[in-house]
Every structure is written in C-alpha cells, then in structure tokens.
Specification:
This protein is mostly helical. The protein is built from 21 helices and no strands. α2 packs across α7 (about 145-160), α3 packs across α12 (about 250-275) and α10 (about 185-220) packs antiparallel against α21 (about 470-500). The chain starts with 9 loop residues before the first helix and ends in a 5-residue tail after the last helix. Mean pLDDT is about 90; it is low at about 1-5.
Length: about 500
C-alpha cells in the first residue's frame, strides 16, 4: 500500500496533539506547579480509586481464561482460512519485547531487592522476605499485566481481521453503539484517548530507560548522571527508533525484537552460570508455586487494616500493586494494538494461552535469575550494598550487583545495550501503532506521521523527567489509565455482543 498523507485523521490527530501540547507548555512554564498538581492527583487516585484497579484488572484475567476455554476459543482472529503471519518464536519475541521491554531491566534487580529489604509482611532481609519478594514480583509481572494487553489485542484483532472493521479501538464498540456513532464524535474521542494514553504510557517507560542508561554511563564511564544526560539519551535513541519505525514492522521491529531476545537470553545464561545456580533454580520453583497458590488473595488484597502500610512505613499497595496496574493499562492500547497486528490467523484459545502463559513464565525466569542472584548475595553477605543502593536510587541496583560478578563491566555494558534496544523496540512499536490510530486504521501509516509521533512521545518523556522523574511517571500512569480502564470494560461488553452472532 502506498503512503497517503490524506489518510491522516485530522480531527483525532489535532485533539491528541492539543492534549499533549497543554502538558508540555505547562511544564515549560512552571515545573514546580506541574509537580504540585501531580502530587495532588497521585494522592487522589490512590485514596479513592485503588480498589477499582484491583477489581477490574483481576476481572480481565478471569475474562481471558474464560473466553479461551469457552465455545468461542476455536474462533480465529481472522477469517476461518487465515494462517499466522509469523512463526511462534518470532511472535513470542515481538510481543515480549514490545510488552515488557525496558521495565524488565529497570526492575529486574530493583524490585525483588526492594521487597526483600523492605518487605510488606516478613522480617526485612530474611529468607522468608526473599521468597515473598519473588512471589510479589511474579504477581506484578505475571498474568495481570498480560491480561490487560490480551484484552485489547484480542478485541481489536477480532474486530479488524474477522469483522473487517478499520484497525481502531473505536470500532470495537460498533456492535454496542452503532456505526454512525463510531464514525462521529464518540468514536473520535475514543481514538483520541487511545493515542494520548499510548503516548504518555510509552513516554513513562522511555523516561525510566533514559534514567537507567544515564546511571549506567555514570557507573561505567564516569559521566555525571542527571536529567540533562537522560534527555540527551532520549534524543539519541529517538533518532534510532525513528529509523527503525520507518523500515516497517517486518524489517525493523522483527529484527530488533529477535536480536534483543538473543541478547537477553545470553545475559540470563551468563548470570545463571556465574551466579548461585542451584539457589536460583530452587527459588524459581518455590516462588512460582507460591505465586500460583496465592494469586487470588493477592489479586484482591487492599490492606484495609493498614497492617502492611504500618509494617512497610508507607502506603505499600498504592505505591506498588495499584501503580503497576495503572502502568500496564497505559501500555495496553499500543501493546494490545501491536499484538493484534501480529496475531492474525491464531485462534482465541491459542492467542490467550500464548499471550499469557509464555510471557509470564519468561518474566518469572528473568526475575528469578536477576533478582534471585541479588537476594542470595544479600543473604550471604550483608555488606554487598545492593539493597542500600536500591533504596537510594533504584537505577543503581543492577549495576551494584554486577560489580560483584566476574566480567562486571561487560555485564553492565550488555544490560545497557539491552535497555537501549528495548527502548527502540517499545517506542518503535508505539510509533507504528499511533500512526495506525491517527490515520483511520491504515496499517501502513505515513512515515512522516510516525516520525512526528516519535518526536512528540520523546518530548513528553523529557518533560516527565523535568517534573519529578519516577513520581511524575507514576502520577501520569494513574491520570491517563483510569478512563481507558473503564473503556476496556465497555469494549468487552461490545465484544461479547458481537460473539453472539458467531455460528459455533
């Protein structure tokens, strides 16, 4: 398909740009003012809507497995004779790289160590705290986030590939609100919301990645870390992912995803062989069992007695679980849309099991090796300083741990490369998806449009760093994720109505 600038949806594009511009201009005028607003909003959402995140995201998990094993599980996300475009391995690589990416490296050591040294239940830095830390981490990176992605991906793929609708989230609601409203202001508003959520969601991860690379440059090469260095990293990597984005999904994203899977696998092998291998394997098995055994209780735990908050010294549920669900939801529009794009021809059952089980297992392996190695070091030698460094600056965790490994410099450098490639693949995927959303569902969006969205997304990431770093990222996740979460519930209702027309 040839590029056609006239395919750009000017109304959706203008509304999306306006929302982003308001934030950027406000930040440039008063960083302190924006910080104050962020602080107020953060407390508001944690206090009043934390329960809704836990309830609804748990519902997404139930819905995914329920529909997979229902009579509709045999339906294809496409026409009955469609075949998958990508091999199973290539499919796994792309959805995993786009779905988790930077966060895995950023939190791979930091989160388990944080829960180990400041656990919500157990005695700090105890063996039980180590097991609890891994169980909690598995929970935060397991079925629930992937269910958020799978809901959007499945509904969009069904609407586009099976029903023949444009590849836009608004068209999922067509069975519920009708074609006329989808093409009117309601549909335009939905697509605008999806774009804004995507841009801010990806920007949060780009901000995290830039902070990680900045710390790595400081640790390895003595370059003073700070916001200016992080913004410079964003500028450089933005140029690289724009080059990847304009090359197309079959070239740029696929090649980078496969490359990064090889790099990540190589890092894990090195860590597993050089680290406490037996302890890691035992911790993985025990933690996985504990996660599966306690998943229902964790899914609905809100700490109404404040026992965890008092033990940890802060509002733990809001700072961790609720934040994570909000963060995953900000990623759901673009990761879901991207997974939909690469999942044509797979049955609903195959799709759900592949999109939930395989990535959850891979995340568990990643955290067991990375976090398990750090926890074992802390248990055997309290002077290694990984926990102390993590509490001071979470970006330091992985580099402090590598300092205690043979070839520490090489491992740190390798992790930085992985972050950068994940940086590119995540932003690459998002740029493509936003291009599709803003061009009427055109699966071959204009390259100039993709470049524009790429630059805008990076600008938002830079503004977030200027307004408070991690705290700003957390707040934005809450603000933009809540309306989209409600929209996802409505989309499921529309999807179920559409399924009733299927002859099974």
């Amino acid at each position: 398909m040839q590029e056609n600038s006239s395919s750009i949806d000017k109304g959706v594009t203008f509304a999306s740009v306006t929302c982003c511009a308001i934030f950027i201009i406000a930040t440039l005028i008063s960083q302190d003012g924006v910080k104050a607003v962020f602080d107020t909003l953060f407390k508001f959402f944690i206090t009043n809507f934390g329960w809704s995140y836990l309830l609804i995201v748990a519902g997404f998990v139930v819905f995914c497995f329920g529909i997979a094993f229902s009579k509709y599980g045999s339906l294809k996300l496409g026409k009955d004779n469609d075949k998958p475009e990508f091999s199973l391995m290539a499919w796994f690589s792309m959805l995993f790289a786009a779905g988790m990416g930077i966060g895995l490296v950023f939190w791979g050591v930091a989160e388990p160590v944080y829960h180990f040294a400041g656990p919500p239940f157990a005695e700090p830095k105890s063996a039980q705290a180590g097991l609890d830390a891994m169980r909690i981490t598995f929970f935060h990176w397991g079925f629930h986030p992937w269910a958020c992605y799978a809901v959007v991906a499945m509904l969009l793929a069904y609407s586009h590939f099976r029903k023949g609708n444009p590849c836009q989230l608004s068209w999922i609601l067509e069975p519920l609100i009708g074609r006329e409203r989808v093409q009117g202001i309601i549909g335009k508003s939905i697509d605008t919301l999806a774009i804004v959520v995507t841009l801010f969601g990806v920007a949060t991860s780009l901000g995290l990645g830039a902070m990680q690379v900045s710390t790595g440059l400081s640790e390895l090469f003595g370059i003073p870390k700070g916001t200016s260095v992080s913004i410079t990293v964003i500028v450089i990597v933005t140029f690289l992912y724009i080059l990847s984005a304009v090359s197309g999904v079959n070239k740029g994203i696929k090649i980078l995803s496969n490359t990064n899977m090889v790099l990540a696998f190589g890092l894990l092998v090195l860590m597993l062989s050089a680290g406490p291998t037996v302890y890691i394997l035992e911790l993985f098995i025990e933690s996985l069992g504990s996660y599966l055994q306690n998943i229902v209780g964790m899914s609905f735990f809100l700490d109404t007695s404040d026992s965890v908050a008092k033990h940890a010294g802060y509002e733990w549920i809001g700072a961790w679980t609720v934040f994570y669900w909000a963060w995953w939801l900000t990623w759901a529009p673009f990761v879901g849309a991207f997974i939909a794009r690469i999942s044509k021809g797979r049955t609903i059952k195959e799709f759900v099991l592949g999109a939930l089980l395989a990535p959850t297992l891979l995340c568990a392996i990643w955290f067991s090796i990375m976090g398990g190695s750090a926890i074992q070091m802390e248990l055997t030698d309290a002077t290694v300083g990984i926990a102390d460094a993590t509490f001071k600056d979470v970006t330091m965790a992985i580099f402090v741990m590598f300092n205690h490994f043979p070839m520490g410099f090489f491992l740190s450098l390798m992790s930085m490369i992985i972050v950068c490639v994940f940086f590119i693949t995540s932003a690459d995927s998002a740029t493509y998806v936003v291009g599709v959303m803003s061009s009427g569902g055109n699966l071959n969006p204009n390259n100039k449009l993709k470049i524009f969205w790429g630059v805008l997304c990076s600008t938002i990431a830079a503004m977030l760093l200027l307004t408070g770093g991690l705290k700003a990222i957390q707040t934005v996740s809450f603000v933009v994720s809540f309306p989209f979460m409600i929209l996802m519930v409505v989309m499921i209702v529309a999807f179920m109505r559409s399924l009733k027309s299927e002859k099974i």
